[in-house]
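User: Could you check the structure of this?
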Amino acid sequence: MPTKTKFPLILLLLISLTWISCSTNKNAFSKRDVKKSEKLIGLHFANKQIDTLYPYLQRNRSGFDSLRKYSLDYGVFPAIRFDPTPFGFQMPEQQEGTQWNIPDYVEVPEPYDLLAFYTIPQLASLIKHQKITSTELTKFFLGRLKKYQPALQCTITITDSLALEQAKRADEEIQNGNYRGILHGIPYGTKDLMAVPGYPTTWGATPYKDQMINETATVIQKLEDAGAVLVAKLVSGALARGDVWFDGKTKNPWDTTQGASGSSAGSGSATSAGLVPFALGTETLGSITSPSTRNGVTGLRPTYGRVSRHGVMSLSWSMDKVGPLGRNAEDCAIVFEAIQGKDENDLTTVDLPFGVDWSKDIKNLRVAYLQKDIEKDTTVSGDNLRNALKSLEALGIQPTPVEMPEAVPYRGFDIILRAEAGAFFDELVRSGEVDIMVEQDQRSRANSLRQSRFIPAVEYIQANRQRQVLIQKMQDVMKDYDVLISPTFGNDQLLATNLTGHPVIAVPTGLDDENHPTSMTFVGNLYDEASILLLAKAFQDNTSFDELHPPGY
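Assistant: Sure, the predicted structure tokens are below.
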């Protein structure tokens, strides 16, 4: 009898010890866990195969744990870098520099508040000819930022001290005959993903609202070198998603019951309302084009690698781009010329000159358009786009109908962005601080980061292989054209061109039946921002949609 009862007691003890060991080791996983996870990846392995791979998975897990002991600075890019260049691609001819026209006839307006909607050349004229000082102009925009911030929620940090210091230096230099160029003394704002010493760089998210990064983003440094004056760090939707940040929701000045769209929400809203003459934004999957459209401004998303991302939060190393939002295409070109170029701190940047020949006849541009996508849009936005095409035809443009690449897994590509974002914010998720972000619903960035942990590396690589196919197919569409005209939304263009790295400019086309702005998009060949800027400027010189401003500002 004693022998019969002893074995069950020992067995029970061993089971208890095993359970205690497993329960205290949160990292432990069983073969049953592996078996269950098969459903997540859509594969099935026999029990014998599970037995074989289980020790390998344990070694993998040990490797994961060892990697996590070494912290990574936010500025470290992966050793694998994205190259948007397709096979057979010929680099467009590049012009060295642009001749900017600073008019002589500009006067300080009456009423004074009309300054809020002056273009960069108009403001530059006032400053260069000393009809207004940079300090006066800077105080004017600082005042507007403070006045309208409660209604628009577009600003995270107003950089008063830095702005007035930079403006004073600009005034002294100009008075002494040291005029740096068209941006000298011009105020601007930047999306709060870009590092500026002495000020928080919050990334729009609660876990980082007190974050101080002691370096200057390259784009900020380049604008400082050009003499521009930084007046505000503007709202980024939390971790570059949407228009909700840790202290509110940024509003569209055309309709404050509506969000400004994101994630360059603050840049779009503030530029539209005349709180800054221009602003910097970033785009991974629509974050310049969307707020440009929603807020009725012009936004340029440059070719991938044209503008340095050093000192800028990464969401997707292979998709992020930095670009300007401004009054019109010429303003965007001015800012783009200042911020583009090779940067030794960003290995993805290219060493190419940039310039636009404004005297070039637009009739020589080879223009295509997505006819089926444009014709199927029966909304007022579609009507506005079709009317815009008529305006271009009146200028001598005869676009050729083409279609976006077909037989492409567009819906599967979002795992590239989500996997790369998951890697950048790995520590945020593992620390649990992702739980304190404001938005926690199914479409939130917090939820997206959590689920990114379940994307297999194999599928991420496969998506990038499919991306290479898309790059080649997009080359087949673009190789015979300089500009492709597309709806901004409602088709595959926005996703495709963000994946392939092509430059685009979102151009206002008027208002819909609710007095909300509408837009169209010009797509250019890789590294050929000049062609889309040239056509956009010609369109804007012959229409007045870029001069529409939200009432009450």
